[in-house]
Amino acid sequence: MSELSKPGTGAPARPAKTAITPATHTVPPAKFSHGVRKGNLLQVAGQVGFLPAVEGRPPTPAGPTLRAQVLQTLANVQSVLEAGGSSWEDAVMVRVYLTDTAHFAEFNEIYDDFFAGLAGPPAARTTVYVGLPAGLLVEIDALAVLG
Question: pTM score, two decimals?
Fold first, then answer.
């Protein structure tokens, strides 16, 4: 610990970093958090379309269709946002990872419908094409700024 970070040295206090894991999520398969909140920032790790966790069962995709997986993925991101004291209204950045360029138009329709009720402007968004584990079609992460 450096002198500047020791209590009582006059250094400004740094906000705690808190891991966020909703009850609907399994423990991550590696050393990372589903979400991390520090101060007024909340970073949601990439979420996929797994159904809510059931103890003793491996993660299960919502279905084989893009629609089923996108809606579940958005619900999973939302559950991390909410567990961290946030919502889609606080999201400033969303990154979307699709496995197939042919899914882009259908994804946009689903995404637009999902966010049709936002009160404020939508988050900035980036979409890239990646490989994901077998059976998964989409992954989404988000950054929210609270208050």
Answer: 0.89
